[in-house]
Structure formats: structure tokens, C-alpha cells
Automatic annotation (TrEMBL):
Membrane protein topology class: Multi-pass membrane protein
Protein name as it appears in the record: Iron complex transport system permease protein
Biological source species: Paraburkholderia lycopersici
GO CC terms: plasma membrane
Family in the record: Belongs to the binding-protein-dependent transport system permease family. FecCD subfamily.
GO molecular function, one term: transmembrane transporter activity
InterPro entries, sorted: ABC_BtuC-like, ABC_transptr_permease_BtuC
Single biological process term from Gene Ontology: siderophore-iron import into cell
Pfam families assigned: FecCD (PF01032)
Matches recorded under NCBIfam families: PRK10577.1-2
Membrane spanning residue stretches: 98-121, 127-145, 152-174, 194-213, 245-269, 311-335, 356-378, 398-421, 433-454, 460-478, 490-509, 529-550, 580-604, 616-637, 649-666
Cellular compartment(s): Cell membrane
Keywords assigned: Cell membrane, Membrane, Transmembrane, Transmembrane helix, Transport
Length: 676
């Protein structure tokens, strides 16, 4: 008898039953406490089945609280099921609708329809979200196909699509804030309900998808056996994968159109179920939806608890991101086939001759000068585009020159920061934007604004630099195990960026009057830059250009590897720490002016490297000139493209950088990618 009891206890420990029950119990307790504060327990059953029309508390429970629970459970279960199905057919433990770009594509489609085709949202909101998610998923597969559809390539492509989609959404929100302000708040994940219509609509859409995925259980299980055995069994892997991804896409589109973007539930639920003992696909298909429902319900109850006790409105999607982003970082170590940079030579263009280097240096001087002249003389008015004469240009110089100087200084700082990180890690895809360094600086700005009494420019600079340096140190610790492989480093940086952005979303949703200042800091506009601020940025850029040659020996030797660096007498730890400090300071100053995203730190060194420049100093100086040119051009385009409205220079640079990143990925041959 005791042996059978012991066996039953061991079997319970090997299943996710206890963890799932614990999550449901905690969520139920929080829900009961919140309802108890509104309605006495004696009236709960009446509020559930037949609320009294004259009792406001019963009506709120019946038409608001209970539908919200139903919608939360439906969305959590559906996302958990979509996550486990997507991971199975792609054989990728990091795949889910959020990491594959489906959510951002659906949200962007809804934003575009709201602005340009609102009639589409009247009766086909789900169809609009489905079209956007399908387009994003197609772009992800097209990008990942250039690298053989490897697991890391697929997630990296999804993160790129997420960044670009987020940049386009931000640009639309700035240019049409009156139409999209509500969509931005709702996009963080809003489960507020006023009747049972949304819950019933979701049930009619999600339950058939779940049943169809259940019918595909046996074909999906064959993916564990490999392509050869599956083909011998007569299973079409391509058809099974297409049908499964199509159903997951429909689930994600329905969730986004109903409640907004709820990220990382499809990643967290299967991971928790697997770690709790659900090893086989049949078990994960059962336990992942239950785990997803419990996780999302608990996250929503925590969000409502914060709202009730701290008067702080927190989107549920921000809490799920704070849970899923660290989990993504932990799971990066479990992926196989990480590239080793030491054994993967990247292909570059032919090195420049001395004459070619002189021509490149001359072009790098003429390019910012030409763009500066265009920015100061060519503008747009009520009569259209016009070229200012000398008198008009001189009269407007006091307005335009600070913007140009600040943009040029920021471009230099970001280009130098990106070039230093790329040389230090040997990673051509490293930049302050993709690695989360700028997002860490933005988190520092948020902390300075909300945690200090009267923050000024020195306070913002110190907090911004501290956030950037902490992010860099975290990235070094995470990526050291993979020899600073490009994919692992970028994915870890993007995960950190997602977590930091969730914290910023929580701060923005607080309703604090200081949120207006935070908007201006994160948008990255040079509109409010005056002569003093422009002079400070220019001085920092000049100091950076003067300080970089002092690190010349480190920048030339570190890319050769640890063994060579030690043999040449370089103290690797000290050199990396010094370069990290310098890169973090440069990124912090730039983030103060231009916001957390711009891609300049990625584009400028990449463009200089494409010219064939190899040595550290010429590469960094030419990259600095390209960075200044790109930022001046972005500031000019942002000022006049949407005239009389203004697009922040940081957002415009992000749009240009995102398109550049996608086009570069498409044009670059698959064998040029590290680890392909």
C-alpha cells in the first residue's frame, strides 16, 4: 500500500499538475479577494447566474469581472496551444507568435486600417489582423530562409520584424496621435470587458482552431523522428507545418484583435509545462494551454491588484513580457548549433588600397557637408518645396543650426559606440540599438525621472550611463558561454530591450504628469534642442573622437582572439571594461537626445566596412562621418516629409535603419552569414 502511494506521489511530481494547480489557486485567491471587496460572498452565485438590475456591484461582477476572467482564460489557453504547436513543427523552443513577428504585424495592420481605411474595421477586424500577421510571418520566413531556417535565424528574423513593425507603429502614432492614442494604450494588452460579447466571439473562433490542432497531434508528433523517417511514414511535413502555422496565425490574429498584444505567453507556457514534466507532445498539448491560462489569469490579477492598491494602471502584456523576456534569455543556452566566430570567417569586400582609403576619407568629409548644406537651405512651406536664398537661410540659421549640430553629434557618438562594440566582440551585428544598450539608457532615464526629486541634465546623464553600462555587463555575462556569437548576443539584447520597454510602458501607463517629459525623452526629437544642448553634444562628440585613438591598440588586437591578445600583452578584462565604459557613455549621451532606437550604431560601421576598410581607426572615423550624415539626413527628413507635422529624428532614423537591415539581409548571400 505504501509502495503504491509512493509511486502515485512520484508520478504527480513528474506531471505539471501541482504547478498548474498552484498557479490557478493563487489567481483564484486574488480574484476572490478583489470581488470580496466589491460584493459579499453571499451574493456571488446570484451575480453569476441572475444579477439584480438594481445592484450595481452584482452587475459589475456579472458583466465586467466574469467576462474578463473568461477572456483571459481563453486567450491564455489559445496562446499556450499555439506556442507548443509552433515550437513542434518548427523544432524551435523559442518559436511563438510574439517571437515570430505575428503580433507586431497584426498590430501594425490594425493601426494602418485605423488611419487609412477605418471602414475595414467595422465588420472584419479579425481579417485585418490576420492579414497583417500573415504578412509579418511571410517576411520572417523570407529572412530566415537566407540562413537555412535555423532556429536562431528564425527568431532573429522575427525580432527584426518586431523592431521594424514597432518603429512604423510609433511613426504612425506620432503623425496621427488623435486616432491612435487609444490604440497604443490598448496595444499593451487590455482585458477590460463590459459584456460577454468578446468572450463569446473568442470562443467561437478559438475553440475550432484548438480542435483542429488536436486532430493534427499525430502528424505533429512525427516531427520528433526526423525528415527521413517522417517521409517513410507517409507524412507530409510541409503540409502539416503549413496547416499548423496557419492555425497558430489565426489564433494570434484573433487574440490581437480582441485584447491587444500579449507577448511571451506562447513561450512561457510550453517551457513551464516541459520543465514541470510534460516531455511528450501529447502531454505538452494538454498542459501548455492550462499553464498559459493560469499564467495569463495570474498576470491579469496582478495588474488589477496594482491598479487597486497603487492607483497604477499596468497593461497585462507588460507583466507577461517581464516574465517571458528573462525566460527567453535562459532558454538561449538550450539551443544547439550556435556559431563559433573564431571558426567562422565572415566574407567582406576587398581591402582598400591607400588611394582608395584617401578617396573614402574625402567622401566621408564631403557627405556630411553636403547633407548639412541641403538641411540648411532646402525646406518646405505652404507653397511646397523651395530652396532658401542666402538672406532667408541666414535668418533661419539660429533655428536650424542647433538641430543640425545636435544630429551630427549624436550620429558620431552612436557610430563610435557601435564600432567599438563590434570591434570588441568581433560581432558585425552588434550595435547599441540591437544589443539593448540604448534601451538600458532609456530605462535609466525613466528611473531618473521617477526616482529623483528634481532631475537635471547631469542627473539624466549619470542614470542613462548607468543603465547602459549595466546592460552591457549583463550582455557580456550572457554571451560569454557562446563565445559572443552574433545570434545569441543579439537575441539576448532584444530580450533585454523588450523587458526594459515593458517597464517604460508601465511608467507611461501610470498617468503621472511626468509622463509628458518621458515621451519627449523617448521619442528622440531634436525639436527642443537649443544652442547650449547642441554645443554640449558637439563637445562630447569631439571628445569621443579624441579619446578613440587612445584605445587604438585594444581595438586592433582584441578582434584577433583571447590567446593572441594575451600573447601580445593585453589585459583582456581591463581592456574590455574600459571599452564597455566608453561605449556606454557615448550611447548614454546619444540616448539623451535621440531616444533609445535609431540603428545608426549598426549602419554606419557596416557601411564603412563594406568599403573595404579594415583598420580600427580609419573604420571608426569614416563610420563617424557616415553616422553624422545619416542623422542629419534623418533630422531633415523628419522635419519636412510630414510638414506641417514633425517626425522625431530618432523615429525617422529607426525607419531608415530597419529598412536597411532588412534589405541587407535579403541581399547578402546565405553563406556570408556567420554560422550558416
Amino acid at each position: 500500500m505504501s509502495a503504491s502511494m509512493l509511486t502515485s506521489v512520484v508520478s504527480l511530481r513528474r506531471t505539471p499538475l501541482l504547478p498548474v494547480c498552484a498557479l490557478f489557486a493563487l489567481a483564484t485567491l486574488l480574484f476572490a479577494l478583489r470581488v470580496d471587496a466589491r460584493l459579499a460572498p453571499a451574493f456571488w452565485w446570484q451575480a453569476l447566474v441572475a444579477p439584480t438590475n438594481t445592484d450595481v456591484a452584482q452587475l459589475l461582477v456579472h458583466y465586467s469581472d466574469l467576462p474578463r476572467v473568461a477572456v483571459t482564460l481563453l486567450c491564455g489557453a489559445a496562446l499556450g496551444l499555439a506556442g507548443v504547436a509552433t515550437q513542434q513543427v518548427l523544432r524551435n523552443p523559442l518559436a511563438e507568435p510574439m517571437t515570430l513577428g505575428i503580433f507586431s504585424g497584426a498590430w501594425l495592420a490594425l493601426a494602418l486600417a485605423t488611419v487609412y481605411a477605418p471602414f475595414l474595421l467595422a465588420g472584419s477586424r479579425d481579417a485585418v489582423a490576420l492579414a497583417g500577421g500573415a504578412a509579418a510571418l511571410a517576411a520572417v520566413f523570407a529572412l530566415a530562409a537566407r540562413r537555412g531556417m535555423s532556429p536562431l535565424a528564425l527568431i532573429l528574423a522575427g525580432m527584426i520584424v518586431n523592431l521594424c513593425g514597432g518603429a512604423f507603429c510609433l511613426a504612425l502614432a506620432i503623425s496621427h496621435y488623435d486616432l491612435l492614442s487609444g490604440l497604443l494604450i490598448w496595444g499593451g494588452g487590455s482585458f477590460a470587458q463590459y459584456n460577454w460579447s468578446v468572450a463569446l466571439a473568442l470562443a467561437t473562433r478559438l475553440v475550432p482552431c484548438a480542435l483542429l490542432l488536436r486532430l493534427l497531434l499525430r502528424p505533429m508528433a512525427v516531427f520528433d523522428l526526423g525528415d527521413t523517417i517522417a517521409s517513410g511514414l507517409g507524412v507530409s511535413l510541409r503540409a502539416t507545418r503549413a496547416i499548423t502555422l496557419g492555425l497558430a496565425l489565426i489564433i494570434a490574429a484573433c487574440v490581437v484583435s480582441a485584447v491587444g498584444v500579449i507577448g511571451f505567453v506562447g513561450l512561457s507556457a510550453p517551457a513551464v509545462a516541459r520543465l514541470a514534466g510534460a516531455r511528450r507532445l501529447r502531454g505538452r498539448v494538454i498542459w501548455s494551454p492550462l499553464t498559459g491560462a493560469a499564467l495569463l489569469w495570474l498576470a491579469d490579477q496582478l495588474a488589477q491588484l496594482c491598479t487597486a492598491h497603487f492607483s497604477l494602471t499596468i497593461p497585462t502584456g507588460a507583466i507577461t513580457t517581464l516574465i517571458g523576456a528573462p525566460l527567453l534569455i535562459v532558454m538561449l543556452r538550450r539551443l544547439r548549433g550556435r556559431p563559433d566566430l573564431a571558426r567562422t570567417p565572415a566574407l567582406h569586400s576587398a581591402p582598400l588600397s591607400p588611394r582608395g582609403l584617401r578617396v573614402a576619407a574625402l567622401a566621408s568629409v564631403l557627405a556630411p557637408a553636403t547633407v548639412t548644406a541641403i538641411s540648411l537651405s532646402l525646406g518646405r512651406g505652404l507653397a511646397g518645396w523651395h530652396l532658401s536664398d542666402a538672406h532667408e537661410a541666414g535668418a533661419l540659421l539660429f533655428l536650424r543650426m542647433p538641430h543640425v549640430v545636435a544630429a551630427a553629434g549624436v550620429g558620431v557618438l552612436l557610430a563610435l559606440s557601435g564600432g567599438i562594440v563590434q570591434r570588441m566582440t568581433g560581432n558585425p551585428m552588434a550595435s547599441p540599438d540591437l544589443l539593448g544598450i540604448s534601451a538600458g539608457g532609456a530605462l535609466g532615464l525613466t528611473g531618473a525621472l521617477f526616482l529623483t526629486a528634481h532631475p537635471g541634465l547631469p542627473t539624466f546623464l549619470v542614470w542613462c550611463a548607468a543603465g547602459s553600462m549595466l546592460t552591457l555587463c549583463a550582455l557580456v555575462l550572457i554571451a560569454r558561454a557562446s563565445s559572443f556569437s552574433p545570434d545569441t548576443l543579439i537575441l539576448a539584447g532584444m530580450a533585454l530591450s523588450a523587458a526594459f520597454q515593458a517597464i517604460s510602458v508601465i511608467a507611461i501607463s501610470s498617468g503621472d504628469p511626468r509622463v509628458v517629459v518621458l515621451y519627449n525623452l523617448l521619442a528622440g526629437s531634436t525639436y527642443n534642442v537649443g544652442p547650449l544642448m547642441a554645443a554640449l553634444v558637439a563637445a562630447c562628440a569631439l571628445l569621443a573622437l579624441a579619446a578613440v585613438p587612445l584605445c587604438r591598440r585594444w581595438l586592433d588586437i582584441l578582434p584577433l582572439g583571447d590567446a593572441v591578445s594575451v600573447g601580445l600583452g593585453v589585459r583582456i578584462a581591463g581592456a574590455r571594461f574600459g571599452l564597455l565604459m566608453l561605449s556606454a557613455m557615448l550611447s548614454a549621451v546619444a540616448t539623451l537626445v535621440i531616444g533609445p532606437l535609431s540603428f545608426i550604431g549598426l549602419m554606419a560601421p557596416h557601411m564603412a566596412r563594406m568599403l573595404g576598410i579594415r583598420r580600427a581607426m580609419p573604420l571608426l572615423f569614416v563610420a563617424a562621418a557616415f553616422g553624422a550624415t545619416l542623422m542629419i539626413g534623418s533630422d531633415w527628413l523628419g522635419r519636412w516629409v510630414l510638414f506641417p507635422q514633425e517626425m522625431p529624428a530618432g523615429v525617422m532614423a529607426t525607419l531608415i535603419g530597419g529598412l536597411y537591415l532588412i534589405l541587407t539581409t535579403f541581399r547578402r548571400p546565405a553563406q556570408d552569414w556567420p554560422g550558416s
